[in-house]
Amino acid sequence: xxxxxxxYLGLExxxxxxxxxxxxxxxxxxxxxxxxAGAAAIVLHxxxxxxxxxxxxxLDFILSYGVDSFPEALSYFPDIRSYNLGPDGYLEHIxxxxxxxxxxxxxxxxxxxxxxxxxxxRQMQQAGxxxxxxxxxxxxxxxxxxxxxxxxxxxELVNEIRQVVTIPIAVKLSAHFTAFANFARRAVAAGANGxxxxxxxxxxxxxxxxxxxxxxxxxxxxxxxxxxxxxxxLLYGRMNCDLAVTGGVHTAEDVLKAMMAxxxxxxxxxxxxxxxxxxxxxxxRDVETWMLEHEYESIAQxxxxxxxxxxxxxxxxxxxxxxxVLRSYEPQRMRW
Amino acid sequence: xxxxxxxxxxxAAAWIAHxxxxxxxxxxxxxxxxxxxxxxxxxxEGRQNIWGTTPLVVEMQSEAGAAGAVHGALQTGSLTxxxxxxxxxxxxxxxxxxxxxxxxxTVFHVSARSLAAQALSIxxxxxDVMAARATGWAMLCSNSVQEVMDLALVAHxxxxxxxxxxxxxxxxxxxxxxxxxIERVEVEDIRAMIDDELVRAHRARGxxxxxxxxxxxxxxxxxxxxARETVNPxxxxxxxxxxxxxxxxxxxxxxxxxxxxxxxxxxxxxxxxLMGSGAEVAQEAVEYLNARGExxxxxxxxxxxxxxxxxxxxxxxxxxxxxAVLDRTKEPGSAGEPLYVDIVTALAxxxxxxxxxxxxxxxxGRYGLSSKEFTPAMVISIFQELQQAQxxxxxxxxxxxxxxxxxxxxxxxxxxxxxxxxxxxxYGLGADGTVGANKNSIKIIGDETDLQAQGYFVYDSKxxxxxxxxxxxxxxxxxxxxxxxxxxxxxxxxQFSFLDRFDMLEAAEDGAxxxxxxxxxxxxxxxxxxxxxxxxxxxxxxxxxxxxxYSVARETGMGGRINTVMQTCFFAISGVLxxxxxxxxxxxSIAKTYGKRGPTIVQKNYAAVDQTLANLHQVRVPExxxxxxxxxxxxxxxxxxxxxxxxxPMMAGRGDDLPVSAMPIDGTYPSGTAQWEKRNITLEIxxxxxxxxxxxxKCVFVCPHTVIRAKVYDPKYLADxxxxxxxxxxxxxxxxxxxxxxxxxxEDCTGCALCVQVCPVKNKSETxxxxxxxxxxxxxxxxxxxxxxxxxxxxxxDRTKINTHLVKDDQLLEPLFEFSGACTGxxxxxxxxxxxxxxxxxxxxxxxxxxxxIYGGNLPTTPxxxxxEGRGPAWSNSLFEDNAEFGLGFRLTLDKxxxxxxxxxxxxxSVLGEELVHGLLNGDQSxxxxxxxxxxxxxxxxxxxxxxxxxxxxxxxxxxxxxNRARELLSVADVLVKKSVWIVGGDGWAYDIGYGGxxxxxxxxxxxxxxxxxxxxxSNTGGxxxxxxxxxxxxxxxxxxxxxxxxxxxLLAMTYGNVYVARxxxxxxxxxxxxxxxxAEAYDGPSLIIAYSHCLMHGYDLVHxxxxxxxxxxxxxxxxxxxxxxxxxxxxAALQLDSKAPSVRLEKFREGEGRFxxxxxxxxxxxxxxxxxxxxxxMARWKMYEGLAQLSLKGHQGKD
Lengths: 336, 1200
Hints:
The complex is a heterodimer. Chain A is α/β, with parallel strands linked by helices. Chain A contains 12 helices and 12 strands. Chain A has one domain (6-328): TIM Barrel (Alpha-Beta Barrel).
């Protein structure tokens, strides 16, 4: 009997497949379908800091613009007693998600500054979230801002949230740190129970006809997995935390690689957006088939088996690996 | 302990009405709209009445509809109410007779307003309620905000006892909009005053099939009269029942009212009788005079109908010698205004009955029409007049009537105010939040102190860049001063640019404080002040403070809203509250006001408070005025005489000083006056980059205020151009030898930046730049003013050379609609401008009341103008509800007159020549060249006829009949040039109140063009739902999102088969818009153009208006099409779709607009449900249009 179970952030999961934060999570019926399809836990879509601020600003604009200017129209909209602003809708969604499915629900906070942030984390715990994922996304475009100060800001935020919640916290990061391993260790020290590697950003694109910068979003591919494998492989066993791979998990092989590199869970979004929730059962079966064919008994057995700690040549995860890849791209001997 | 609250009278009336009603039927009209809005909002929030159930609030299509619904609900036993004013009350009159005749208990709350006579006015007087005095309703008048709340309850309680309906009224604006600190009548009080047995009796009188009877019969001469007299005992009893209810109220709440309340010396020899807010003013004057040894009094009439003669006589002081009766109304041709006549009658009856020893001297006078100021000085003047041997009767007060010499003089400098009252005047821009801040200040002072507080706010009639003046009073004693502050001890100017336009310090008393929002600091500001401002500051020894409010607001994320900054300054300087307490109170108020908008908003307001004090400085005032410059002239020296004498004083806020003789007698005003009102309201204006411009004309097209113009002209005119004037070769094949200029009028621009948004060109090196870009106005003002003046001297394009089917060409046509007072970024005005460009020189426009009638015809100026030949649109506004019929009347005149002219022409074949006669009668007038030819023929006709008549003069009367025909033909000949009739209005008119008439006019088959400026909401009255509002949109009266879909007016019109119908959205497709206008006018029958107009009421920054129009079309929210009956006649499908099948989800369009996104913030699930239904609407309608576009229905076409 295969044992697919794993633990993540102290949560007992029946398998390592975790659909990660995406717009799919807005719909309760989709959460139920994910559970039915085999998902072991769900990371909800993110509560965006910018969105809360912008909704607030927008409402203020709507209710303020043009008022008290013209005697016949002193206001333009009914100003009702209360608005569903900020986290209220999101918190309600957590409550409903918890009621709708039995698998763990991980709430996601996306932002960078403090503000009401700390409070939102506390409210998410109150609403029933089993864990929190902090998605820290910041483009350090200000040339006067140095990396040390920025890292401190990240860590302070983790620490402050740690002070107000008792549920586990995972921190979702980008790979763009000069000394990632060091930062990862400090994040754990600040209170992170898990690291989610790595987030993917909306990137700008240029529209040549309209001469405008437009946001571009494209789904991930398995090619993006390598970066995650490297860092999971490097961190496994060296950090006192769980690890999640996200970005580039599309196939059973991708899941298996993530596990062997040392991840507790393999998170996925693009493949579910592209192939639908019904893709999950097949994926799970493929994982099982592979494990049976290769006579693995459990996920626990393979977890970290190919991390830098456990492989013969740890340098393969480091710069040596780089040299090897370059060589593999050397032009073939010319033939004529 | 009852709570003290600060609110206005509309809210006070609605508070009571909502508590004691089952059903409320409403319709918006200024100044009563807020009462309905409160009721609707409370019900949507689930607030319950005293019986624990939430009143049902229903918006109707007109006041006539509201009255009908009220009547129906009353007849079926509901406790029902409504709110209205002015024309709205006029529409309710027929039902009011019925309701009274059927002895039905109800109360209508009316914020009394002027009636449209020589002009519409939204302001307050008693013309409307006086027109209702014959309906059989009791009429109860409240004079102040407290009284409105108190007497509203008295009215609701008394009508149940008496079975006589009550019209409860108070002065529009002066009372309805005055914010006052009052004691609230609590729910328990209301509960105690309403007798449930009477409620059940009312219910039991209702129609029910379980207890069948009929009511509303038709009666014959045999019994109608007797039946009409049956009600007399109810009216006889009514005054006593009202008094009992007042006594019951007094026993519970301590405030004692009477049918007539007398204030003054018990032994007064002179008394003024009046009702409304003026009675409060009179009380202030009476107390002032009596304190100085006089013996005078004021008698306040509260229950005006039924008029209790005996009570009135009893209330008069015994020593009375003379009485002045003041009416806030005008009844031309009467023996006297109504209250005067009633008082004279009452006195006569009192004398006859022996209740009064002698008949006192009585004079009557008019005051306060359309919220004209009424002050204690005027009251004192009237008391003085009463002492004259021959006092003037039928006088007026408050104006200078130099025509009929009715007016009494008064001393404008006399003040009867309590010197202990703090009086503050605040001058702000609508957009800067000044009024909101002041309303908050009143609440703060009301809540934090024992002081009485009063606020009144004056707005100008512009929808962009409007000036607001806040009048705030705080004092230890009850404030009766229901008039504007004339002597202030605190004056704040929140906009530096007002300094050289308005004399704000005129009202500052000696030693007052002057706070100026200034970009210049305490050390540099002095030299930036106009000389006369400096002189006043010195002469009046003002304490002068500056704050750079905009910097503080910018730095704290407040943008252009300086409300919090200026409010903090007021509290810091005025000392009304200790500074620390004031700051805490402001912050508390911020949290209360903005808390529900999110912590971000609260925090930035806190930051603004915190940073203000460091930026507030007292200015050391020099001993001498030093500036070499002074206030600007109101209008240019070359403005016409009418503008100089009449328009300019109105612009400068000195319209009150104009005498009667200055006014046109019949409401006729010259066109083309907006061009003289240089408002300079924007900080940025567009600047043309002539090097990359492709001359497409789109910026000219979209400019809502017609400040961007394009001309193509002979380069010879460039001989003597201003230094910075720009000109390039014209990019037209047919005009390649000519020059092209695009010019902005810098002083008329409102800075909306739609021109930049629409520009299709981007700079190849810096893509942020386009062929037109915004730049700061002040440094460009003088230079561009000179360029604009030069540009105006360039000749207009020859209209016959324009290909009107091309937008690029059309934008060379001279617009005859310019510089309106519409909102910045308005989505309606580009359509009107296009209309004026295409047909303005021969157009007659009937304009429904609404936004377009206000920015089109609200004094002091009008944007409708004329060309060099003196031709331009003839424009008029009748009412809201009758515009289609009004416009049809224009067409009927033209049709009849044309027929007459054509009958006359052949009589003069020998005089005119056969060829001219043939041309006049058969000339093709289908394009500009042909129109020009016809104008030539009419000119020739006039010349030849006049020459003939001159020759005939020697023949005397021998040929009199033909001579007379010639004179007749001369007077009607202009009609031989084709005229274009346009019926213009908003969706409130076309979809709701005017729909019946519109339907009839479309069905008439007559050649009229109907242009519906569809903002999908009642824009002018503040965003109430109309039947054009779409599903899921939040609007007033649809606070929970409109549950059902938008009425398809286009489809309804198409069913006639002979109506040309188009739906256009210029931001999505300007060519299609132009095509529709051309086809509509060319079609020989009725046409209807439904023009999508983005609007501030859609809840987003209108700089994105064009993008939203595109999204509206792309999502299928507003499909574009044209339905042309001529195509059906050719056997083709009459409907042509001009937009593609929906290509983006409706959500994409809706997420950009606050009217939709707000609902998601209130009720996410409801919003999602309505969005889904709305998406289904879109798909279903598109499918239907697609089907119709493939349908050819021969026979369903053509003119009847």
